[in-house]
Amino acid sequence: MNLPAPFIAPAEQIEKGWIDYNGHLNMAYYNVLFDRCADHAFETIGLTPDYVKERGLSFYVAEIHVCYLRELHLGHSTAATFHLLDFDEKRMHAYSELRHADGWVAATCEALYLHIDAAGPKVAPMPEPMLEKVRAMYEAHRVLDRPERVGRSIKIAKT
After folding, report:
1. Residue 83: C-alpha distances to residues 42, 60, 77, 102, 138 (Å)
2. Domain architecture of the chain: domains with CATH
3. Could you tell me the superkingdom of the organism this chain comes from (predicted)?
4. Which residue of 6, 22, 50, 151 sits 20 to 30 Å from the alpha carbon of 43, by its own alpha carbon?
């Protein structure tokens, strides 16, 4: 399996309805773009609407941390990346960047995904064929440098 490192989602244009009263991309739509990127990356490991429908299994986001670095505006073109940092049979830890078409980073996102059996719902192991693809993605991505923003916490630094 030939996997890009990191995975790069198809480009997306910022839409008029996504612009807030400040004249830039509303914070919620950064998450939409990160989520769409994850959906594309998940397709490469076999998480498709058919997988969810036929098996009753999916991935849910357990935790997410977004850093907003630069404003995006109407008409800007962006592409998001997906970098698998770690995984086990039930979880994936990933880092993403949302990049403007000119190459600068507009936002970063760190997320923990849980593989879920919707019948519970409860956390459940991935089936071996999917886990094998996750292993392959991890092997392709583990050669990448660990992003500087991974593991950040929210706090006010005291002087």
Report:
1. 12, 17, 20, 20, 8
2. 7-141 (3.10.129.10)
3. Bacteria
4. 151
* 105, 99 Cβ separation under 8 angstroms: yes
Distances (CA, A) of 6 to 20, 26, 72, 122: 30, 26, 22, 29
Residues in the chain: 159
Task: Tell me, yes or no, if the pTM score tops 0.85.
Answer: yes
Q: What is the DSSP letter of 61?
A: E
| C-alpha–C-alpha distance, residues 111 and 100, integer Å | 21
CA 67: distance to chain centroid? Answer: 13
Decide: helix, strand or coil at residue 4: coil
Cα–Cα dist 7/80, whole Å: 8
Residue 146 Cα distances to 13, 31, 95, 142, angstroms? 28, 22, 9, 8
- Residue 59: what are its φ and ψ, rounded to 5°? -115, 135
Helix (H) or strand (E) holding 135: helix 128-141
